[in-house]
Predict the structure.
Amino acid sequence: MTSPPPGQIIDGKAVAERLRGRLAARIATLPFRPGLRVVRVGDDPASGVYVRNKDRAAAAAGFDSATIQLPAETREADLLTLIEALNLDPAVDGILVQLPLPPQIRPDMVIAAIDPAKDVDGFHAVNAGRLATRQPGLVPCTPKGVMHLLREAGAKLAGARAVVLGRSMIVGRPMAQLLLDADCTVTIAHSRTRDLAAECRRAEILVAAVGRPEMVRGDWIGDGAVVIDVGINRTPQGRLVGDVAFAEAAVRAAAITPVPGGVGPMTIACLLENTLEAALRRRGAVT
Ligand SMILES: Nc1nc(=O)c2c([nH]1)NC[C@@H]1CN(c3ccc(C(=O)N[C@@H](CCC(=O)O)C(=O)O)cc3)C=[N+]21
Ligand SMILES: [Mg+2]
């Protein structure tokens, strides 16, 4: 049903590099540098690599990018004041507040405070609503990156059975909507799904986003499926593994993303793509 040759490993790092190259070429033609501000409160280790990789990629592509580091004990009101200043700053096109936040700060309040036009994570209810109603808006980076990878892998989407494992606001739900918009027949499976393995086995396209190391075993994969592994889990030994047992799954899949080097680099490239999109829209150069 799907077109890629058996066992193809989808090179997310290479796809992300090409996307960043296209963004850089476009930015080089602009009379301004799209501005991105990443706000980090405390030093959650899950955010560390991401912030470093993002800073490097943004600068290389010609963005005006900076990380604003705040102490772990920052009060919610002070973070909201900073966001308001970034909302009003005409040089800032994109605002990303790193999650998770320390316990004294309510993430919903923070996300709601970001100007939807600058919400490059696509987490604001206005952008979620636009996606749900098929209006143009900022789309969450990871699901957007997954769609790029599926297209690069040559996956046939129209009419295909797609299973999304996980129902988070950040990945599962927007992922399901993008697949639906691409004419897949979409199932959202989750921790309460009766027979997860059986649901997954029916999938021609399987997107795993549960955050449980190697939960998806080889015998959950249908022959010739395209498998996208969104999970980035660190083992006690310090190794990175996905939500899919890669070696087992690769034997049965037509194509599969590795961890690292799969979805992760695409999330960063799509954050930059969203920042450029936000800049073009805000500054009246709609494309
Ligand atoms: N508001 C917000 N938006 C986010 O998008 C967000 C966030 N908060 N908080 C943290 C998570 C995590 N995240 C990653 C993105 C890329 C890699 C990535 O590029 N990973 C490399 C490996 C990096 C390594 O070696 O550890 C890869 O998968 O190949 C990792 C993690 C975005 N996040
Ligand atoms: Mg769950």
